[in-house]
Amino acid sequence: MTLNTIGVGEKCQLVSCDIPAKTRSKLETLGLVPGELIKIVQSTRAGLIIEVKSSHLAIAHDLASRMTVS
What we know:
Elements: E1 11-17, H1 21-29, E2 37-43, E3 47-52, E4 55-60, H2 61-64, E5 67-69
């Protein structure tokens, strides 16, 4: 399943990201690494607001659709 299929308030764990290396590297510096717990805080037309390690990040829907979670 992908990150964009998770409902608001639900938690999941990042498994992998099928995204360009530069983008993946930036997300990793923000704490979004495989194995990390993610909580969906809000869903908007533009994307998702997620909580990772008590920080909130905005992720576009197209990017979220390429992130595999469990």
